[in-house]
Design a protein that fits this description.
Structural class: mainly alpha
Number of helices: 4
Order of helices and strands: HHHH
Radius of gyration: 28 Å
Largest sheet: none
Length: 141
């Protein structure tokens, strides 16, 4: 077993011990009955909204049932967060490759005489490396 495997096992064991200690001390907070259903109810609500948004029929009674259950759990403090779990992709040019352009390799080859293809609109092409990196220039070689 390598060092990293041992470190991972120790971290997992420590996390389990911390969870056990918190649960036995009561510091993790009282559990609200039905709190485990919050994620399922949010998913169901998302399915119902998606169906409505795409022109398919969704039972209004089901939507009201899910909303009532979520409002009840929220009033009892069972909804811990309204944070979204997914994020939109970064905008092109914000550091990560976006649609229509590719990530640059870690080391660029020496510039060639062939013209490079045009960059997509709104994307600044990467300049060629300096001459001291390619060996094509410099003084007194």
């Amino acid at each position: 077993m390598g060092f990293l495997d041992k470190a991972k096992a120790a971290a997992t064991d420590l996390a389990a011990k911390a969870d056990t200690a918190l649960a036995s001390s009561g510091l993790s907070g009282p559990k609200v009955p039905g709190a485990g259903d919050v994620d399922k109810l949010f998913r169901d609500l998302g399915v119902l909204v998606y169906l409505d948004s795409t022109g398919r029929t969704a039972d209004p009674a089901e939507r009201q049932r899910v909303l009532t259950a979520l409002q009840d759990l929220e009033a009892r403090g069972a909804v811990a967060s309204f944070a979204l779990h997914t994020a939109p992709p970064p905008a092109p040019g914000a550091g990560a490759p976006g649609p229509g352009w590719q990530a640059q390799p870690a080391s660029s080859p020496a510039p060639s005489a062939a013209p490079s293809p045009a960059a997509p609109a709104g994307v600044t092409p990467t300049p060629p490396p300096p001459s001291w990196m390619t060996g094509n220039g410099g003084s007194g070689s």
